[in-house]
Every structure is written in structure tokens, then in C-alpha cells.
Specification:
It is a single chain. With 684 residues, the chain is an alpha+beta fold. It is 45% helix and 8% strand. The chain has 28 helices and ten strands. Strands 2-3-1-4-5-6 form a six-stranded antiparallel sheet. Strands 7-8 form a two-stranded antiparallel ribbon. A hairpin with a 2-residue loop joins strand 5 and strand 6. Helix 11 (248-256) crosses helix 13 and helix 19 (447-463) packs across helix 27 (645-659). The longest helix is centred in the N-terminal third of the chain and has 22 residues, at 29-50. It starts with a helix and ends in a 13-residue tail after the last helix. Residues 1-9, 70-80, 325-330, 379-385, 475-514, 548-571, 573-577 and 612-632 have low confidence and may be disordered.
Amino acid sequence: MDSAVTTVRYEDYVEYFLFVRSDNSEEDAEELVKHINHLNTKALELVDRLSEEYIWHKDKFNLIPRFCPSAELRQSFSDTSDEVLPPHLYGVTHYGDNIEDEWFIVYLLKEITKEYPELIARVIDSDGEFLLIEAAECLPNWANPDNCDQRVYISEGDVHIIPLVSANSRKSITVSQALEQITKYPTATVASPEVNSAISSRLHGYPGKIKENLHCCHAYLPVGVAYLLKHQPSLIAPAVLAFCHRDMLDIKACQTMKHFPPKDRVMCAVTMTKCLYAMLIKQKCVPEKRTGWDLVDPSDSLYKAQITGVRIACGFEILVSQAKSTVTDTPVDLTYDKRWHHYKSSLADKGYFKNLYEGSNGYKVLEDQAKQYYLSNVDEYLSSPSISQRIKNILDGITEQELVQLKSSTLDLKPADDEKWLDVSPSDLDRILEQKFGLKNSEQSSASDFASSFTDKIRSFLNQASDINGADFSKNHLSDDSDDSDDEDKPNDDKLSNLLVCGPDVMRPSNDDKDAVAVRYKKNKNKKSSVNFEPEKYEAALRSILDFKIPDDNWDESNSSDMDSYGSDCDDMMTGSQADPSIASYMAQMDKELASTSLGSSFVKKPTSDNNKQKKTVRIDPNVQCQDSEEDNFSDVEDFEPVDIDVNAFQHILKSYQEQLGLPGPAGNLLGPAGLNLGKDSSK
């Protein structure tokens, strides 16, 4: 997309297209225009019914028909590709800080395609195909951000994903090709039930969810503001945004309150979205007493309504102060419109003006066409710059009789909504995060089960495949020795892939690929390097540590301490070389030093068969010389209690997890992918 619209379109936008199925490609052009205009009218009527009580945060849902304008104009507004799109309905909405607007638009598009099956919708935002982000855990193996562009659509209320034809096929696909595939294979291109379920769960509750996202509060407002909100309740959104994003010039306007003097105020019930209300009440506001704001003490019950009214009134004052006095029926002046100048420069760079001299007749004709296209396709999708003028025009038409009626109608107000939803406790936040990102109940493990299965989980972790993108923990991951059996039992749910001779395993490495990787690894291994890392030996050493157990009764008289078996295991791990004799002496000396401490009692022991037997800790006086005698060895064996390796490993992992204080860390990173959830009671 060219810089012309980059200055207009921020990162908080959602862009949507409604294409007509190309069943009748020979339809007359004039009839096609009438048909698309008719669909546009019907779609907007349906949207108006579904969003009657909805308050848009920034821009509302809107559609306009587009019939393939000239290439130069089209390329400056399309950010997808240079493809000439078929005639369609187009819209773009900026949702600001309320991401719920984006998903409500997805709900509207699904309902439109259900009501009018001949329409196929496509919706994207600044992240691209954001529907796939929501269903990331359910996508087919071949799907990745590089090859999914223009492959996701909504038809008859279902999400459709156009699969790759083959592993060697082009990653990109045109919109026309995608529409053709959906038209020819309407049931084969539909996404898996898991993908559609993930999207449907995100949209669960609409249209009843609209009222759940609204909040009603009481505000002590100037009569002019009360009149505006009574006749156009949606104006609360731009007023709140204007107040929250105020600058020094706006603050000066609030100090005078020229258009909404605070001397004549009424109590009103104001409805807005919860997002807007949270933004509004968190704004610090110190009203000027010289302006006429006489507020009660903050401890008074009316203070909240009064300070809320000050904030809302200041927002409307800022909006009206930004309005410019214009004469009716005069042409729009774009002299100081930066967006227009950027757009015009982009057209000149593309050769739109055909090297004509500026000011010539031909140049003026092309410039007028560009102005018309700019005004009809850009201003419709901005936070409307004419809203300030519209508010001012409404204020100019207010009569005294209407104000008297307004004051009498504010005597009976509905009660304000509870504000408990603003207070989110840590436990509530954990519950919300668990519902959104946590594991399923069947995948969770309690802390008691975790101790016995910890080493098994670590071994399973080591058996997982990994590549340049990291370890694969997905449930549907197939190991090398189970590919054939799993493929036989796998249901044939990718119908279009079979029709086009492609399957879900297209992106999986074949045996030839693995052999090539092995050969390349051996070549690199033979090269001289300053670091000689052998992964097979490293893995074997780690596995031997995990498999290490202290035998209960298999003791040899030659052992000088309880830790000698650890030294022998260390010797076994040193494959291909003779252990240094000094290591054994170091280990023996370390055992003697540890024997005089309480370190041994700090480990959790395995339960013995004799429950009445008292647990003993062997201590050696450091002043007494240690002698290795048979009596000492056998007395040690009698009092020895084997250490529970699993429980001790669990305790250390648990301690590391607690030290993270809820932040990312090594223990959490290890437990999460392994499918282990300690929960909130991890301290027990």
C-alpha cells in the first residue's frame, strides 16, 4: 500500500470485502452494477437491524460498491496485491482500543453470508488473516503465515480455507482463484470443525452480548450535551475519545466552555460501552472553578455523577471547538489536507498524470477524477472529520421549547449499573487467563500425580521432535515410526486436497528429506570446529541421569559411602575414555564432608516397609577420623533410607516455579508444554 493511505490507516483497522459468486460470468455489466447496489442496500439494512443498540468505538460498519476503477487509482488504495479485484462491496473500520468492534464485524459478515449465500466475505486487519490467529491451535500442518494470505474466506456463515495444491505449488493465490475454488467445491473448502468452533466460540453470545458490553451511568450534564446524547446516543464515543486524547489546545477550550456553559445542567442517564467508561473514569480531571464548575465534596454521593458530567461535557466542547465554519454547498477545500497531498504525490509517482503540465486542462480533468475518488473512498472510512461540524449544526437548531421538554424528561432516570466489573482480582484474572489460554481439564495434572510422573514427562519431552521453529508439542504430532499406522487410521477430512491430489502431510518431511539432513549433518560433523558437541551422547547422559536410582539392598562392601554409586554412574557416563582416578578421591572426600552435615536429612526418603522403624540420620564427628570398616559399612546400610528421586526433583522444580512469581521462567516453560498445570495451590 502506498504512503497515501498509510497516513490515513492506522494499525487499528479491519478491512472487509464481500464478493459475489461468479456463477454467471457472462452477466451484463449494467445488470451486475444494479445487482451489487441492491446487495449493498440489503446488507446495510441487515447490519442496521443487528447493530441497532451497538455503540461503535471509532468507526461504524459501512459498505460501498466498487467496480474496478482505473489501475492507477486502484493501486494506491489496495494493500493486498496488484490484482484487479472483481466487483465487490468494500469497507474498512478503525476500532481504536476496543477490539470487540473487530469481532462484531466478523459476526456481521457471517450473518450477511448466511442471509445472502451468493456473497463470499474476506476480512483482514493489520496482522493479516487474523481469523487464523484465533484458530492457530486447530490449523492444518501446512498452514503458516507465509502461505495463508488470501486463502481465508467466509461463506454461508462458515470459515473456508483454500489448501495448497501440492508441496511445490505457489504459496500465493489470487482472490479470483480462491473464489472459483469455493464456488466449485463449496463443501470441500470449508475449514475443519475445530477451526469453525474456535471462531464461533469467540463470537459466542451475539447479538445478546451487545447489551452485556454496555454500561449505564449517571452524569450531571449541560443541557446542550444532554440534548445531543438523547437524539444521537452514539456521539458519546467520539466525545470520550476527544477528552481522553486531549492536548494543550483542547485544554484551553475546556477552560472557557463557550458552547456548553456549566451553569445550566441536568442529571442524565448516559449509556456507553464498558471500554469507553473505563477510559473515561480513569482520566484525571481538575475542573476550573472560574469556568463555573461548582462541585460537591468528593465524599458526597453526587460527586461521581458531577465529575463524570464534567469529563463528558469537556469532550463535546473539544469536538465543537474543532469545527470550522463552512458555507453550505461549497466545494470541499483540500488545500490543507495532508492526506490528499500524500495521495496526489503517490499518483504522480505512478505516472497517473501522464507527464501533463500542472494546470493544463488534461491535468485538471485527471485531478478532479482523483479528488472524487479520494473523497468517496477515504473520508468514509476515517473517524469522520465532519462530526464536529455535525454537532455544531445540531446545536444551532435547538429551540427553547425542546430544552424545557428535556429538563422535564430527566426527572425519572433508570438506575446506574453496578461497577463491580471494573475490579478484577488476581484470582479472577487467573481464571480468565486459564479459560482463554489454559489447558483442558483432561490435560491437567495435580501436584500429587506430578511427583510420580515427572521423569516420564521429561522423557516424553526429550522424545518430541524439534526443528528450527522449536519443539513440536502438538497432539497430532507423528513420530517417525508411527507415520504409516497413523495415516491409515486418519479420517479423510480434507476433501479438496484429495480432489487436487494433495494431502495434509504435504509439508511433513519425507524419508528422503531426513536422509539428506543426516548426510549434511555427517559432513558438518567431520569439519574442524572449536566446539565438538555430540547430541547423541548428550541425550544419553541426560537419560542416564533421569534413570538413576539408588538401589535399596544391592550394596557392596567395597563402597565407602552412600554416594559411591553416584560416582560409578558418573564413570559410566564418560563413554569412550577412562575416568580420572582423582575424581574418585574427590567424591570420597566430599562424602565424608557431607556426612558431618544435615544435608542428608533435607532429602525426602522413600517410605520403608517397617512403619514403626525410626528414621535415623548418620552423623560423623568431624574431629574423629573416618575409618572404612566392615562394621561401619553394614551399620550404614541398616540405617540407610533411599532417597525418593521423583519427589525431590518435583520439589526443586516447584520451588523454581514459585520463585517466578507468575512471570515466565525455566520451570514454567518446562511444565507448560509438557501438559503439567500446578494451579494456584502450588505451595502445598
